[in-house]
Amino acid sequence: MKFCRFGADCFGIVEANVVYDVTQALDVLPQVRYPLPASDPLIANLDAVRERATQLKKHAPAIPLDKVRLLSPVANPGKIIAAPVNYTKHLQEVLADQHLHHGNMINHIEKAGLFLKAGSSLIGAGDNVRLVYTDRRNDHEVELAVVIGKCGRNIAREQALDHVAGYSIGLDMTIRGPEERSFRKSPDTYTVLGPWLVTKDEIDNPGALDLLITVNGEVRQKANTSDLIIDVPGLIAFASSFYTLHAGDVIITGTPEGVSPVVPGDTMVATIERIGTMTVQVSAA
After folding, report:
1. How far apart are CA 178 and CA 89, in angstroms?
2. pLDDT tens figures, 188-222
3. Rounded Cα–Cα distance for residues 49 and 142 (Å)
């Protein structure tokens, strides 16, 4: 099933080119008081919401998909965890191009580890990426995004996919330069998640998905998640050996070769097999 957030924090089921407005399904979410839970309430209670949404869909208003503004399918991720240089060919292209590495030490992911992006950088497909420091190179990076569905620490690889709520497309926008990754990748709008959340039952093998991004119709990145150095179960196990993972946490799994600059006025179209396609505009901040 595909779930989206749209408009003024509405909630919908996506089928073909239609969104069914099942916002009332959110009424099953538990009421919370301060201090707020560490998990995103929607993702933590997704099974109950799904059951209610399925009932409501029978009589729900149907809205053309192209008439809604899509928000990030996860509103409040506790952490956005990112995997650097997790495709061998991308590692090779970064090492070979001074305009990409800027003298930074570039290591294989198993040496570099993971990094975090600011939650305030998160937007949905219906919002523009607003570039800052347009005098510097700003790059697109298309990635499979994994949304964690339940809490876990030191998760075994064999149980890792049991902790997944679903999958989305991620864009890890990047300012090139000498600073730390987290700093250059965390301005507002520099993490795009969308266009919706595809529940895990729709994707039995996240390690065999084609992914693609075009800019103004030109293919820039094209690969398959089978090329990941550390695959999805491995990334979940790796991340959970350092952090407790909570429902709503997002892991973006790394980008393949072909990263390249975008400028205001560009149109990015990102596609991942069995998830869908999202179109994201680029503007200046």
Report:
1. 21
2. 999 999 999 999 999 999 999 999 999 999 999 99
3. 29
Distance CA 269, CA 233 (A): 27
Residue range 9-27: average pLDDT? 97
Burial class (CB in 10 A: 0-12, 13-18, 19+), 138: buried
Q: How far apart are alpha carbons 254 and 84 in whole angstroms?
A: 6
The length of the chain, given as a count of residues: 285
Query: Is residue 71 within 8 Å of residue 5, measured between CB atoms?
Result: yes
Burial of 274 (0-12, 13-18, 19+ CB in 10 A): middle
Q: In Å, how far from its chain's centre is CA 112?
A: 21
Q: How many CB atoms lie within 10 A of CB 94?
A: 18
Tell me the two tokens of residue 55.
Answer: 């009932």
Task: In whole angstroms, give the CA distance from residue 41 to residue 47.
Answer: 11
User: Is residue 227 within 8 Å of 210, Cβ to Cβ?
Assistant: no
- Domains, the chain: 2-71 (no CATH), 80-284 (3.90.850.10)
| CB-CB contact of 90 with 256 (8 Å) | yes
SS3 68: coil
Residue 239 phi/psi, 5-degree rounding, is -60, -40
Q: Are strands 260-261 and 138-140 parallel, antiparallel or unpaired?
A: antiparallel
Report the pLDDT value the prediction gives residue 104, as an integer from 0 to 100.
66
Q: Is the pTM of this model over 0.85?
A: yes
Q: State the DSSP code for 27.
A: G
Amino acid at 86: N
ω before 195 within 30° of 0 (cis)? yes
* Distance separating alpha carbons of residues 244 and 260, to the nearest angstrom: 34
